[in-house]
Design brief:
Length: 568
């Protein structure tokens, strides 16, 4: 049922843009006039596989940032780019962009203590509270900081929703709920209101990283998210895993603009804390599902001290380029991205310690190189320029792409689109292709046209509630306003029954995802990946030749950013 609703929303969005309105006139390419088909016919399955063999070899040690694996990977990507005829992508004439990272291991210096007058309560580190700081500093703390319950911690103008309502949270500690508001439909309370926060699908506002960013923007000293397994999508153990070393970017201000303390409360700890304030957690949680919610000062004060151990790593994004052919449009860019990093050397599983990351993401990088080759050889050359960005530290929180988005080598307003590849289809050809976050931008229309040349159709993400649109590198482009496309393997495999897709996907998640066994398998069939790569090429090629830049669809949460950027 939920799926039906989602599909309706997507159809509605598609209908809105296939009518006679503006978006419909966006130039979905003319594949017949483009050389796309000829050029992509050169996408070479063996070349992709050979590159995966190199990148996922034990010699590359799982490609962790700051290790010998990084040195080898970066060198390989530069050498391959040169061999394939790609130009240096950095305007300084090199193939790299430096990405300074800091690894911070936090520890509790003083426990989380909450007071109400003379009453005092201490919460247990790791069991009840998980906290850290992203500030590059030896210590960080909150001291007698007023605690305010700020609902979902969301300010979403397109939904006319603001959980802060102008309440000053500067220097205070906000406690917020996980995920985005799951507002029941007025007509049928067993369903979600699809006009708010995309119904069941997760929006950016549901990501915990958003809540920390929003809190920092408003000057909060502390931001604590209440963990609940259902809406979070994972148990508290996953949150506890954040207590090890964490990598981050280093801003000029040493990240002092971030909240001093970010963290999570267990559900039990939160209920206990609300009870201490004389409030009922479940009742307030219910209130927070309304647009009329106003923040609730809990009459409590929080103190917590953190101590950091730090190390810095000079990591690198690799960037290559094919110059556009049009005198005016060559200063505009389509950026393909794919993360080169993986987890490195990890605790052994069956005696194997190297997380080779063959699928995640040697396969994406190998495929993007092949798309690069197709562009280098394309005739005629695309009008706009094409960038191939191989980013670092995706596995540490999308850091390489965040660094690029915050320090772009080319103006973002001249960056027309991002197309991201993270993992490719290794199970053979499909009749469809999954679009993560389908309906987000005009790029879907380009993809639909491209797919039609292969008699294939598009499919929405079957797990949209997990927020995959916010979990790979294209998201950092979306966040700064650049329309971004991210696809996943289709679900209808040629010659296979309907269950095949889910079986394979579940097998991969259970057995190989982020494990040393993510290696090249004897049963891999990259014929589907080759077809997908041709589509990715065509989308980029046609966007690069189009009269107009692609746009976010009306109502999308990133559209306002883009509009503001283009007005400048
Ligand atoms: Zn990945």
């Amino acid at each position: 049922m939920k799926r039906t609703l989602l599909t309706l929303v997507i159809c509605a969005a598609a209908a809105a843009c296939s009518g006679s309105d503006e978006a419909a006139q966006a130039p979905p390419a003319q594949p017949a006039a483009s050389p796309g088909a000829q050029v992509t016919a050169n996408i070479d399955q063996n070349a992709i596989l050979e590159r995966i063999k190199v990148l996922a070899s034990d010699e590359y040690e799982g490609r962790a940032p700051g290790t010998k694996g990084e040195d080898l990977t970066v060198k390989y990507l530069i050498d391959e780019s040169k061999t394939l005829g790609l130009q240096p992508g950095n305007p300084d004439g090199t193939y790299v962009q430096k990405v300074p990272l800091v690894g911070i291991t936090g520890a509790e210096a003083r426990p989380l203590t909450v007071t109400k007058g003379t009453q005092k309560k201490t919460y247990k580190w790791a069991d009840e509270v998980v906290a850290w700081t992203r500030r590059v500093a030896e210590t960080a703390s909150i001291e007698d900081s007023d605690i305010i319950f700020a609902g979902y911690g969301v300010e979403a103008p397109e939904y006319n929703w603001n959980d802060f309502k102008g309440v000053d949270v500067k220097g205070k500690t906000i406690v917020v709920l996980v995920n985005d508001p799951q507002v029941p439909s007025a007509a049928d309370s067993s369903q979600l209101d699809d006009t708010l926060f995309n119904g069941k699908a997760m929006t950016y506002y549901g990501r915990w990283t958003y809540k920390y960013e929003k809190g920092a923007e408003l000057g909060a000293a502390g931001v604590l998210v209440v963990h609940e397994t259902g809406p979070a999508g994972y148990p508290f153990e996953v949150v506890q895993g954040f207590l090890g070393e964490r990598f981050g970017l280093i801003a000029d201000d040493k990240n002092m603009s971030k909240a001093a303390v970010e963290g999570w409360l267990s559900l039990d700890a939160a209920k206990d804390l609300f009870a201490m304030a004389g409030q009922d957690f479940d009742a307030l949680k219910k209130q927070a599902l309304s647009r009329d919610f106003t923040p609730v000062p809990l009459g409590l004060k929080a103190s917590l001290g953190l101590r950091n151990t730090m190390r810095t790593i000079d990591s690198q994004n690799v960037i290559a380029k094919v110059d556009g052919s049009d005198a005016r449009l060559k200063d505009e860019y389509v950026i393909y991205s794919s993360h080169w990093d993986h987890l490195g050397v990890v605790p052994p599983v069956d005696g194997d310690r190297i997380a080779n990351g063959a699928l995640d993401n040697a396969s994406g990088v190998a495929t993007l190189l092949e798309i690069g080759r197709a562009f280098a050889q394309a005739q005629p050359k695309p009008k706009r320029s094409i960038l191939f960005l191989f980013v670092t530290a995706e596995e540490q929180g999308l850091l390489g792409s965040a660094h690029y988005a915050e320090n772009p080598l080319y103006p973002l307003e001249k960056t027309v689109a991002n197309i991201n590849i993270d993992g490719v289809n290794q199970w053979g050809r499909t009749n469809d292709l999954t679009v993560v976050g389908m309906g987000a931008s005009d790029l879907d229309d380009y993809l639909r046209d491209a797919a039609a040349t292969q008699n294939r159709t598009l499919n929405p993400d079957p797990e949209s509630e997990k927020g995959f649109y916010y979990r790979s590198d294209h998201f950092n482009f979306a966040k700064v306003g650049v329309p971004a496309l991210y696809t996943d393997t289709g679900t209808k495999f040629v010659g296979k029954d309907d269950a095949f897709s889910k079986t394979k996907r579940d097998e991969y998640t259970a057995n190989d995802y982020h494990k040393p066994s993510d290696e090249i398998k004897a049963d891999w069939d990259l014929s589907g990946a080759v077809e997908d790569a041709k589509l990715m090429f065509l989308v980029g090629y046609n966007v690069a030749n189009a009269d107009r830049m692609p746009e976010w669809k009306p109502g999308n949460e990133f559209r306002a950013k883009r509009d503001a950027m283009m007005k400048k």
